[in-house]
Amino acid sequence: MSEGHAPALRIDVDFRIGLHRAVPRMAERLAAHNMLATFFLTTQLNGGRPWLRKVVRPGYLKRWLHIGAWRLLGRLGAWGELLGMSGGGDSDVLLGSTIARLLALGHEVGVHGFDHEWWVDEVWHSEPERLAQEVARAYDVMARVTGETQYAWASPGWRSRDDVLQLLATRGVPYLADCWGRAPFQTLLRDGTLLEMPHLPVTVPSAEAMTGRSDRVTATAIAVVCGSSSGQLCCLHDYYEGLLQPGLLDAIIAALEQAGLSTQTLATAATALPGGRVMPRGRLARQSLPGFAGAVSVQEDV
């Protein structure tokens, strides 16, 4: 199969416990099967009180009860680590060593915000200046830890806005990855500005939305969509496929291999796309998705 037809894989890392416990295993398992991914890392690793306030809200509580998070985290003895109070040592050391290992394995590293929970809660109504500060804080951490700032960005919770996309374009990100959709496109902002870098939306149904099915059935469904056409992008998570359902990652790898598929980073997928103004154009809209609380950004045709 041509590299251009390989599905892109992103793994969103929302929690310190995921960075510490899930990411190393996920990265190693993928690399062992010659599969690569883009790991989008949250950079604020200390403190979890905003998360605790969030998950007792009805929508989030229902979601986390549905996927069995409470029981498993208790069994892991991971509550303190989830809240950023223990585990993994110094935050900069943990982040830096994880990034180094990911890059050594051939994976791509990107930024998944600074304070993940703040972004999810506030992005729709926050002042542009506050969002710009949050973006800057995330990249400042990466600069401090790695000495580099040229990383792609994926907004926490798949929630973004036109002014965020414009800010990212000004920063020179190589591509955008801020929404769900059907295929790669170029973003047309509502003021008429066309952002020429490709926007790579998540296109493959989330395993989390298929809770209750066996790992094999879920993995097969994901592989079928991944192989249906070029431009497919699958999104996994540290807390779900990495911690709550660790056997699911192996099932997905097996299903992809059975279908003759490998995975590639978003950076590789982006470079294979046509340049110039020949890609489809789309805008950001908002829509609720099965299995998740609240609306997310989605691709809208223009």
What can be said about this structure in brief?
It is built from 13 helices and 8 strands.
SSE layout:
Blueprint (H helix, E strand, L loop, with lengths): L7 E6 L2 H17 L5 E4 L7 H7 L2 H10 L1 H8 L2 H4 L8 H14 L3 E4 L4 H7 L5 H19 L15 H10 L13 E4 L5 E6 L15 H12 L6 E5 L2 H5 L1 H13 L7 H6 L9 E8 L6 E7 L1
Helix pairs in contact: 1-6, 6-8, 10-12
Characterize the structure shown.
- Helix 1 links the parallel strand 1 and strand 2 (38-41).
- The strands form two sheets. The chain has a four-stranded parallel beta sheet.
- By secondary structure, it is an alpha/beta fold.
- The two termini are 32 Å apart.
- It is built from 13 helices and eight strands.
- It has one domain (3-301): TIM Barrel.
- Helix 1 runs parallel beside helix 6 (91-104).
Number of domains: 1
What is the straight-line distance between the termini?
A: 32 Å
Shape: globular
Helix content: 40-55%
Quaternary assembly: single chain
Tell me the structural class.
Answer: alpha/beta
Q: Main β-sheet, in a few words?
A: 4 strands, parallel
- In the predicted model, the low-confidence regions spanning at least 5 consecutive residues are none
The CATH homologous superfamily corresponds to Glycoside hydrolase/deacetylase
DSSP summary, beta strand count: 8
Q: Using the CA coordinates, give the radius of gyration.
A: 18 Å
